[in-house]
Amino acid sequence: MATMVDVAKIANVSISTVSHVLNGTRNVEPDTRRRVTDAIEKTGYRQDALARAMRRSRTDSIGLVVSDAGEPAFAEMAHGVEHAAAEQGLTLLLANSAEDADREQRAVRTLLDRRVDGLILARSAASTAGLVDSLAGEKAPVILLDRLYADLPFDQVGADNRDTARRLVAHLTAAGHRRSLIVAGDTRVPTLRERLDGILDGIRDAGLREEDQVILTGTDFGALRTEAASALADRDLTVVIGGSTPLATASLQAIADAGRSTPRDVAFATFDGYNHPDVFEPRITTVRQPAFDMGTAAVRLLIERIESPDSSPRTVRLRQTIELRDSTEHYRRDAEPVPASLT
Amino acid sequence: MATMVDVAKIANVSISTVSHVLNGTRNVEPDTRRRVTDAIEKTGYRQDALARAMRRSRTDSIGLVVSDAGEPAFAEMAHGVEHAAAEQGLTLLLANSAEDADREQRAVRTLLDRRVDGLILARSAASTAGLVDSLAGEKAPVILLDRLYADLPFDQVGADNRDTARRLVAHLTAAGHRRSLIVAGDTRVPTLRERLDGILDGIRDAGLREEDQVILTGTDFGALRTEAASALADRDLTVVIGGSTPLATASLQAIADAGRSTPRDVAFATFDGYNHPDVFEPRITTVRQPAFDMGTAAVRLLIERIESPDSSPRTVRLRQTIELRDSTEHYRRDAEPVPASLT
DNA sequence: CTGTTAGCGCCTTCAT
DNA sequence: ATGAAGGCGCTAACAG
User: Fold this and answer.
1) Pairing, β B267-271 against β B315-318
2) Distance in angstroms (rounded) separating the CA atoms of residues B287 and B248
3) Residue B337, CB half-sphere, CA atoms under 13 Å: how many?
4) How far apart, in whole angstroms, are the C-alpha atoms of residue B292 and residue B73?
5) How far: B51 CA to D5 C1' (Å)?
6) Residue A282: its chain B contacts at CB < 8 A?
7) Torsion (CA) A301, A306, A310, A314 in degrees, nearest 10
8) How many CA atoms lie within 13 A of B62 on its CB side?
9) Contacts of A92 in chain B (CB under 8 A)
10) Overall CATH class of domain A4-47
11) Which residues neighbour B257 within 8 Å (Cβ) at sequence distance 6 or greater?
12) What radius of gyration do chain B's Cα atoms show?
């Protein structure tokens, strides 16, 4: 592989001139520039990003640590990050945490050791004390994506989970639902906690009692499925709400286990949802995150943070949309009309 | 950030000793080693991967260039690559080609400039002359994943598309189907070409005529959907076969457009398919790639190639499985029994 | 407008 | 068993 020395020799200039034409970092006589570019052409020279990074002590790369959930919402976020990074000329280094705090730690370390200029933690288990500590001393800024923890000294990007959950429930109660099965999942996860809180807000708004709802929490999807199936023996539960894609899957399985089906004899709505809602049955009412935009927003915040490390941390929440479909709309057609303001 | 110099000073040794305890690359007195590890502990020293890579001229990282299809099969492959890389202590650098030859070129360049030790091109448009040329001179080996081109000087990992397609058609014809709508897509893509060829093999095996089948090719999914819908006016077409996930989506939409439904009045099967086949209707008979294993196989091949650059290129094809579901099994129950040997 | 030079942090002969 | 020193390829003062 050709180096700057080779180019300089052929062009009959110093390596510093080569560097400067390469980076456009100072004026050089058209004629000399010519000789240099010709030499570059001839040798097929390419800058060595490693050496450059070492000297400049910045790599023009950022890291993304993700839990490897195959959920569409997450894939979209990663995609948004990828897109925005490329647009900024940043290389993206990816590491996988598999929803495991330990692996997350190691992933973060790996990326930091590679001297990424900044780090985005998507769906992080960031609450673990260790992580925050280990990040404190680093100069590489960190952005939290999707799971937002209060009182952390990081920029954060998420969605307005609580508010949208409340709007969703307003719609459901307006349609006549009084008692619901809420498959809330692991409420230590901020996103899921916020969604549950918003649902409860909505319940209260409608003058309903929390005690009349069935709320299922926990981390074990198998157990949740079983519990949900038993709960559904109670035919007064007219609607099921899933807190995320895997929770929705467990819920749908439970509905089938209980010998019920949506929307025929129970309504159903979920957060995050599935791809191809137009091709498969049932068509599910879904709260959709602006996942791609969340990814790009994270990159934007990261870049701003790299440029001004000492401004105070910001939290951005993007607005979600409610996509109404058969699973709620074709249950109880006799209910009150749907307000048009909902999406 | 602490460097080896800091550590050496504190431990009262030379930096070369520090290097050697770090890498276990020569014996050092237990006592000195102790002092060094203590100093490392105290300073929170971490190796600078960049400087190390520069000196050793290897980065312990590999690159993965992918088309950003959100298809499950692809996500699985990427996941497999990620997993295997981590297991080998390799960092994974990811770049996205968005199914665009130009972007693919640039992605490859970016990764090569970062001096990855090797490169995996998944779902590559590698046929473009430029790419192959630009790769020829590089010392970083390249593995092609999923789309296999004959006569290319690279290791390649794919699936036994042709053979499995043939088995699938054997099953369908045994079940009584005589005329099919084959949504084959862009047959310049080797994977899709192989699948179509295998389907035609199967047609011939069954003593049927190719002229009685409707074969739709092309890159425009919208157009394919329209053509498929018109074709389905012919009620003698009793089965539709999709060549990939997006082709399946277009096919399913076309079936709906034509006022038909599967499996009620047309059978359906596809390659690659969708997630959550247990939760949604219709449940689709699917040829499934061992996508995860393909990813890990690519990493294995890459590592072997890095270690012995001059052995001749190998092509690995992994066996696919046929997952039989309602979309073919609940059409024409009166047909001949299904051979048990199929999956 | 161009050239010289000192490192960035590390690994690795070559001495001792 | 340990140290000294050169250099990987590049950028950024500093000179001229």
Assistant:
1) unpaired
2) 12
3) 3
4) 8
5) 17
6) 280-281
7) 10
8) 29
9) 93-95
10) mainly alpha
11) B225, B226, B229, B232
12) 26
A138 touches A161 (CB < 8 A): no
Report the C-alpha gap between B247 and B224 in whole angstroms: 8
The closest nt to A31, taking CA to C1', is C1
Q: State the span(s) of chain A assigned CATH 3.40.50.2300.
A: 61-158+291-318, 161-289+322-342
Which nucleotides of chain C does any protein CB come within 7 A of?
A: 1-5, 7-13
Superfamily of the domain at B61-158+291-318: Response regulator (3.40.50.2300)
User: Which phi and psi angles does B327 have, rounded to 5°?
Assistant: -60, -25
* Range 66-125 of B in CB contact (< 8 A) with A: 68, 70, 72, 75, 79, 82-83, 86, 91-96, 109-115
Q: Does A253 touch chain B (CB under 8 A)?
A: yes
Residues of chain A with CATH 1.10.260.40: 4-47
Which pLDDT value is given to residue B104? 87
Instruction: Report phi then psi at A243, rounded to 5.
Output: -85, -10
List the 142-201 stretch of A: residues with Cβ below 8 A of B: none
| CB A216, CB A184: distance < 8 Å | yes
pTM score, whole prediction = 0.90
Which nucleotide is nearest, taking the CA of residue B4 and each C1'? C9
Return the closest nucleotide (C1') to the Cα of B50.
C9
- At B237 the pLDDT is 96
Cβ–Cβ below 8 Å for A93 and B94: yes
Residue B321, amino acid? T
Determine the Cα–Cα distance for residues B104 and B96; give it in Å rounded to an integer: 7
Q: Using pLDDT thresholds of 50, 70 and 90, give the confidence band for residue B9.
A: very high
Tokens at A239, concatenated: 């609607």
Q: A1-5 long-range contacts, Cβ below 8 Å, gap at least 24? A: A1/A46, A1/A48, A1/B139, A2/A43, A2/A44, A2/A45, A2/A46, A3/A45, A3/A48, A4/A45
| Least confident among A288-297, B63-72, B197-206 | B63-72
Which homologous superfamily does the CATH classification assign to the domain defined by A161-289+322-342? Response regulator (3.40.50.2300)
Nearest residue to B247 via CA among B76, B104, B69: B69
Within its chain, how far is the Cα of A44 from the centroid? 40
Q: What confidence score (pLDDT) does residue A43 get? A: 94
CB spacing of A50 vs B53 below 8 angstroms: yes
Cα separation of B343 and B341, whole Å? Answer: 6
* Rounded-to-integer distance, Cα B217 and Cα A22, Å: 46
CB nearest B276 (choices: A68, A92, A249): A249
A155-159, A274-278, B72-76: segment of lowest average pLDDT: B72-76
* CA count, 13 A, side-chain hemisphere, A85: 31
Res B342: pLDDT: 52
Q: What own/partner pairs with CB < 8 Å and gap ≥ 24 does B125-133 have?
A: B125/B67, B125/B97, B125/B99, B125/B100, B125/B101, B126/B152, B127/B188, B128/B101, B128/B104, B130/B101, B130/B105, B131/B101, B131/B104, B131/B105
Do the Cβ atoms of B50 and A50 come within 8 Å? Answer: yes
- State how far the alpha carbon of A267 is from the alpha carbons of A175, A242, A291, A325, B156, in Å: 11, 11, 25, 10, 48
Q: In degrees to the nearest 10, what's the CA dihedral of B43, B49, B54, B55?
A: 50
